[in-house]
Structure formats: structure tokens, C-alpha cells
Design goal:
Number of helices: 10
Strand order of the largest sheet: 2-1-3-4-5
Radius of gyration: 19 Å
Number of domains: 2
Strand content: 5-15%
CATH architecture of the largest domain: 3-Layer(aba) Sandwich
Structural class: alpha/beta
Length: 214
């Protein structure tokens, strides 16, 4: 039986590599490719898919809006997040938003095989390490997550946006007339509130909730 898979990632080399691996693991798979959210949703409008593999950091849309649209248009399609974000820190955010699984871009072939098998046969996938973490987690966090950027002050949000646009700390210091050490303190505070370790992670999370910021 033909398995119809939509592979959406804005990097052609990633689409090519994962597409080759999928064809090796699932020879009967019929793969369509999209380079951004807009193209991905155009595919969703035109044909039915068994599995939709989504990168989260793509232009022309946001992950949350895309998944909501997919769940309305194709409720039987399963969504697998394909991301370089730390699984332990961020996977459940996407599951709670409507995705059915999470696969890290550094996953080895065997894990990709397991993810495809579980998504196509069972309709869901999480790595064994994450499942173990969830079983033994006792932090008591609520099962719903609000937009983490809402926790930022106006000043923190202003600086966060400048960081995501690639503005250096010294430039931000000059633009806001604030000492560079203070900007560095703001940056650390922003990272702490968002539970991230880098600006690329912040961009991914922002696009998840808000879409493009340029």
C-alpha cells in the first residue's frame, strides 16, 4: 500500500537527505516536498496525506497555525515534528499544540525507522528517553502551556526581537542607550524565562507561536 508523506523543511539538503532515507526505509512511500508553511498548506488543500513531517523554523507561517489548519482539513493525517531543538526541553510543547510526534534532526537511521513505523502504524511517536522522562517527571507542571513570550516584560521583549534579528549586544546597547552589561543581563534573563540556551532556539519558539517577525 502506498504511504503518502509530505516533507516540509526550508532547507533543500535536509529534504533531500530525509527523503532518501524515507525511500530506503519505506520503499512504497510517495513523498511530496514543501519549502515553507504556505506551500505545505497548499499541498494539504490538494491531496490527502498519511504523514506530514514539519520543520518548525520555516517562513510564511507558524507551526501552531499550520497544525491547527492540518487538523481541521485532514484530521486523519499524522504530524511529526522534525526539529533540531532539544527534545527534553521542547518536544511536549509541540505535542500539546496538536502534533503526534517529535523527531530530532540528529536522530540516527534506526530512530528514524522507529519514528516512521510508529507514526504510520500507531499514529504517534516519542523517543524512549523522553517517555521515560515523562513517566518519572514530578515537577507538577500544568499540561497546558501558554505563550512563554507573555512572561517577558516590554523591555525584555524589545531586546528579544532585536536579538532574533541578529543585532549585536553592543548595537542594542547603543540603540537603547543602556550599558552593554545590562543588555547581557537582560539576555540571560530572557533565556532563563524561555528555557533556552541560544538565539536560534528563541527564533524557533517565536515562530511556533507568532510566525515570522521580520
Amino acid at each position: 500500500m502506498t504511504e503518502k508523506i509530505l516533507l516540509a523543511d526550508d532547507h533543500g539538503i535536509v529534504r533531500m537527505g530525509l527523503g532518501i532515507m524515507i525511500k530506503k526505509l519505506r520503499p512504497n512511500a510517495e513523498i511530496s516536498e514543501a519549502e515553507n508553511y504556505e506551500k505545505a498548506l497548499e499541498f494539504v488543500d490538494k491531496q490527502a496525506f498519511d504523514l506530514i513531517i514539519l520543520d518548525i523554523n520555516m517562513p510564511n507561517g507558524s507551526f501552531q497555525k499550520a497544525v491547527e489548519y492540518i487538523n481541521i482539513k485532514q484530521p486523519k493525517a499524522k504530524v511529526l515534528v522534525f526539529s533540531a531543538l532539544d527534545e527534553d526541553l521542547h518536544a511536549m510543547r509541540y505535542i500539546r499544540a496538536g502534533a503526534n510526534g517529535f523527531l530530532n534532526k540528529l536522530a540516527k537511521e534506526e530512530e528514524v525507522k522507529n519514528a516512521l513505523e510508529n507514526m504510520l502504524r500507531k499514529g504517534h511517536y516519542l523517543s524512549d528517553s523522553l517517555k521515560d522522562d515523562l513517566i518519572f517527571r514530578t515537577d507538577g507542571k500544568n499540561s497546558k502551556e501558554s505563550n512563554p513570550f507573555e512572561a517577558l516584560s516590554n523591555r525584555e521583549m524589545d531586546i528579544a526581537v532585536r536579538l532574533m534579528k541578529g543585532t549585536r549586544l553592543k548595537e542594542i546597547s547603543n540603540e537603547l542607550n543602556i550599558h552593554v552589561s545590562t543588555i547581557s543581563t537582560y539576555k540571560n534573563r530572557i533565556f532563563e524565562k524561555l528555557a533556552i540556551k541560544s538565539v536560534p532556539e528563541m527564533i524557533d519558539i517565536f515562530k511556533f507561536y507568532e510566525g515570522d517577525f521580520y
